[in-house]
Amino acid sequence: MLKSGKTPLLRARALEKRFNIKEIWLKLEGTNPTGHKSDRIASVLVNDMIAHGQTMMVADGSLPFLRSLVSAIERKDLMIRIPRFKHERLKASRLDHSFIVDMTNEKESKAVVMKDYAKAHQAYLVREGSSHVHLSQMALEPMTEEILNKVTDVTEIYVRFSYGYTLSSVYNAFLKHWIKNDVETLPKLVCGTDAIYSGWLESVQASDEHEDEGKLLVMDAKRALHETRGEMVGLDTEMLMEARKILKSDENIIVSKEEAHAFAAFMKQVRSGTVQNGKHVIILNDGKNRVSIDEVSSYQHLGKKDIYALVEKYLGRFGDSKEEVEDAIDNAMAKGHVLIAEGEDLPDGIAVIVHTGFSQFIPSYHLAYIGINPQSKGRGVGTELIMRAIDLTDGNLSLHVDLDNPGAKKLYEKMGFKHVYNRMIHK
Questions:
Q1: Which residues lie below 8 Å from residue 181, measured CB to CB, with a gap of 6+?
Q2: Average predicted confidence (pLDDT) for the chain
Q3: 358 Cβ contact list (under 8 Å, min separation 6)
Q4: What's the DSSP call for residue 253?
Q5: Coil, strand or helix: which one is 179?
């Protein structure tokens, strides 16, 4: 199973040309296991639950958040219960019924009902936006570290504002680097949100009374905006739809309307003339490369010469002799799998998976070749190909990696492969 984090950070050169901006980077959080940034938080919360000796979670929140929790819970073979309150029909239609607890007739508030239910079942209680706030903020900080590892002197970072996790987390991570003098200035933080909420954050005031975690999260987000000279940008549906369309047409990136706020805010700021000509990072909570993976089932669909040409073209110096490649292709076509990542005009990648003939001695399948169009690197094409290969082989898969290709080794390790031994061949 693919772990959360270490998602692609794409240089959006087509958008740079469109908007006449020096650098635009897109953080594609849609390549997380369930396709959303919230996977980062879910994995940490589940580990915290285990550390507390609990085996059941009671959780509430947005659908992406709940899907992330369900996925993380199932990987650990634990239990989760999700209350369904009145008027929450989407939970019943979008989530497995076995996780749902009917609470449509409860008269008390959600917070009280969930607290009582969790206490009665000795369960770990999670309410998005109002519990485990600091732990959730910390879970998102590696996302900023991934940005800093690739882009220095960031001018602005654009996020979607919902609960405030991302905004406060990005601020905290940059602040740590600023204290250590790793960065000279903090980037301006800009939040896209629905138009009706654009002035809401500034109106929130601190209270002298004991604050709940949700209120503290909001105050953290407000402080992050103030300290970075940031702002909230109100957006309507038309702007969100246009943002989705441009991302798809210019950069081959897909994002949901609900998560297009960050890019839509950037577009709106560019058009208002308030964007500096520097380095801008846009975090897309469920953004991912629009990659279509097709399996070639016979030479009638794609000839051996065509498949060989793709392997030779995209593997370059990491390829083998013509005889070796064609032998692998024949095996993969008969007993294994040949996968093609479809691009707009030509294939963006290829994977050749051979069958070893063993069931126990070594993995039954071997990823003989995987190659990516250089123009598409960094867009998650390789990740999508490997995920499909793992799925088709039920994870019973091995691969070889050239010792002079550390980038590939890191990708494979991210996908769950372990370096067990070095292969030696008698010549």
A1: none
A2: 91
A3: 364
A4: E
A5: helix
Domain edges within the chain = 9-35+134-288, 38-130, 292-414
Other CB atoms within a 10 A radius of the CB of residue 427 amount to 3
- What token pair was written down for 398? 């091995």
Pick the CATH number of 38-130 from 3.40.50.1100, 3.30.70.360, 3.40.50.80, 3.30.70.100: 3.40.50.1100
pLDDT of residue 272: 96
Q: What is the dihedral of CA 176, 267, 195, 167, to 10 degrees?
A: -10
- Tokens representing residue 134 in the block: 């600091």
Q: Which two tokens stand for residue 142?
A: 């590696």
Rounded to whole angstroms, how far apart are CA atoms 376 and 120?
52
292-414 CATH, one of 3.40.50.720, 3.40.50.150, 1.20.120.450, 3.40.630.30: 3.40.630.30
CA distance 256 to 254: 7
Give the C-alpha separation, 130 to 136, whole Å: 10
Can you tell me the distance from the alpha carbon of 217 to that of 15, in angstroms, rounded to the nearest whole number? 33
Distance CA 31, CA 346 (A): 22
Torsion of CA 160, 165, 171, 174, to 10 degrees: -100
Q: And the tokens for 82?
A: 């999700």
Residue spans of alpha helices (H) in 287-321:
304-315
Q: What is the structure's pLDDT at 315? A: 85
On the question of a common fold for 9-35+134-288 and 38-130, the answer reads yes
Cα 360 to its chain centre, rounded Å, is 34
pLDDT one-digit tens code per residue, 136-152:
999 999 999 999 998 99
Task: Enter the CATH code of domain 9-35+134-288.
Answer: 3.40.50.1100
Which residue do the tokens 């009638």 mark? 300
Compute and round to an integer the Cα radius of gyration of the chain: 24
Which pTM was predicted? 0.78
- C-beta of residue 218 within 8 angstroms of C-beta of residue 203: no
pLDDT at residue 294, rounded to an integer: 83
Amino acid at 6: K
Q: Are 106 and 74 in contact (CB under 8 A)?
A: no
